[in-house]
Specification:
single chain; alpha+beta; five-stranded mixed β-sheet; globular
Amino acid sequence: MSNEQLLHLATELAREAGELIFERRRQGVAVADTKTSTVDVVTAADRECEQLLRDRIRELRPDDGFYGEESDPSRSRSGITWVVDPIDGTVNYLYGLPHYAVSIAAVEGDPAAEPTEFTALAGAVFAPALDEMYAAMRGGGATRNDAPIVVGSGPEDIARTLVATGFSYRAERRKLQAQVWLALADRVRDMRRNGAASLDLCAVAAGQVDVYYEFGLKPWDWAAGALIASEAGAEVVGVSRDSRESRAMLVAGHPRIMPQLHDLLLESLPSHLL
């Protein structure tokens, strides 16, 4: 299957799953479980959506692997694995805020075994409450609702940079992340915190924010969104004190501003965050 065919399938699956969770939100949402903390919630719709995607992929491409947030991974016999977040932004979803999405990417490699050592071939992020479909395939550019998107001209310097970020569900880690933002607050234009990593990466791709960074993401959070941002012309890197290839912190942004932001983030980080 070509990257173009993988992309077509990714967008079809993302839309089908998005329509499901949108309807479940209209019917009403309740917490089904918690994960890393009492505020890191899972809804029945998360699980239903992931099962739908797992079943569809098993039916259409039985040799492919599956790696999702809410269930155990399955190994690939084809070399392709589908990396899925059934509802990115579950707390937004729970509260009726529109910034939530289905994120799905077809990748080469095994993200369950090597979380940073895979290559995304095609990806889609669908926000049903916003009716926005972001999509990209490797080497083919990025789109929003089928229209090409690029990062644009970008800010002239760090002081004019609009920054997006996210925060952990664990309170002690969130306090450390707030300290990092405090160190940036008087150096950049402003911050946005929308609560869904995939959509923040797509916002970089569409030029709606200049930079996005976050600590502790999992592959399902960024596999599709990072490809979309990269194909739109953003620089996407993992940052640590030892290597820009780590995914301890993911940073995506306009290439003009990334060197300044990279250095500023490293200055601001408590050493045990990376």
